[in-house]
Amino acid sequence: MNQTSGHNSAIPGGFGIYLHWPFCAAKCPYCDFNSHVRHQPVDQARFAAAFERELAHFAELTGGRVVNSVFLGGGTPSLMEPRTVERLLNAISRHWTLDDQVEISLEANPSSVEAERFRGYRAAGVNRVSLGVQSLQDRDLKLLGRLHDVETALRAIEMARDTFPRLSFDLIYARPDQTPEAWEAELNRALSLAADHLSLYSLTIEEGTPFHTLYHAGKLKIPDQDMGAELYELTQAVTEAHGMPAYEVSNHARPGAECRHNLVYWRYGDYVGVGPGAHGRLTVGVNKLATSTERHPETWLEAVETNGHGMIENVGLTCEEQGDEYLLMGLRLVEGIDLERYEKLSGREMDENKIDDLISHGMVERIDATHLRASREGFSVLDAVVADLAS
Ligand code: SF4
């Protein structure tokens, strides 16, 4: 691969490329992602060709930039054959220059079939894998509709550790009937298996999902707000004690092992979004463009084959929108936001009285004269904090 040590000095936050593989073996009942189940084999060569075309389209807008991160997300990208991944990464390498520290991540599910492909992904250039483990309890894996069991997940973690320089896995907590004691034991076990990064999400009930229907019919009980807060606090205490504190609301890492791709989002960098339902943010000239593509996989495929891209949105963001997005993203990070950058993006200074008011309520903290972050309490009501600062 064509690599160099370089920087996107004009783009604070760096530059990443996201590819969305929209297929899954089954739909999990809590999931509202753009993921689809197909009962016939997916024509991967045809999809790969469409990804190549859409990448070429975005390269025309962003050619010459240095790529800090590539992320293959989904859906379930580990349903891709290694050959498909290789084609996509080769296309990226042809159009852009890869930083010599480039992070190339792939989301994988821990089924045995997918784990067998790990060596092929590594040979294609993937250097970080993010495993959707979700639980270390068989009962809860069934409840979450996952196709793997704990034993298979443990084997996949081991195989991933042996294959990739970097590994993360996801767990979902605040599950039905989960007690703090049970979560603490599970989290300690996860930390003993983890490399240097963990994503720990609390279960949320998303509209349009089977869990939403069950929840509103009273057939699914999840921990109430107080218990949710207790589980969140416990998560922070246990991960901190293990040297893996949160660097973002739901993401934990040893210092230096933060997911570079997600940092591009949260530091409000630039990213190309390719594939069905992918979103992008691109600085082109004086504009910051918001792009998105057709969500339905086969409709996207046909659009790309006809037009060279599946974009359905390509609009310049106003200064105010950019300021709001920077707040929304940056305040998720423990490192917080740069008030001078906020001013440059939004074209206005942040109201000092509002900051002082939120500080007096324990919601935000000043790091220094120009940096601000949400407090731990502020993290739990982040949307309200952002709305307050942005108003
Ligand atoms: S595997 Fe992931 S993307 Fe696919 S349905 Fe389950 S949660 Fe959603």
UniProtKB/TrEMBL annotation:
Chief place of localization: cytoplasm
Database matches in CDD domains: Radical_SAM (cd01335)
Localisation per UniProt entry: Cytoplasm
Pfam families: HemN_C, Radical_SAM
Keywords: 4Fe-4S, Chaperone, Cytoplasm, Heme, Iron, Iron-sulfur, Metal-binding, S-adenosyl-L-methionine
The Radical SAM core domain, residue ranges: 9-245
Domain of life: Bacteria
Signal peptide: none
Function statement: Probably acts as a heme chaperone, transferring heme to an unknown acceptor. Binds one molecule of heme per monomer, possibly covalently. Binds 1 [4Fe-4S] cluster. The cluster is coordinated with 3 cysteines and an exchangeable S-adenosyl-L-methionine.
Family statement: Belongs to the anaerobic coproporphyrinogen-III oxidase family. HemW subfamily.
Listed name of the protein: Heme chaperone HemW
Source organism: Roseibium aestuarii
Top-level taxonomy: Bacteria, Pseudomonadati, Pseudomonadota, Alphaproteobacteria, Hyphomicrobiales
This protein's encoding gene: hemW
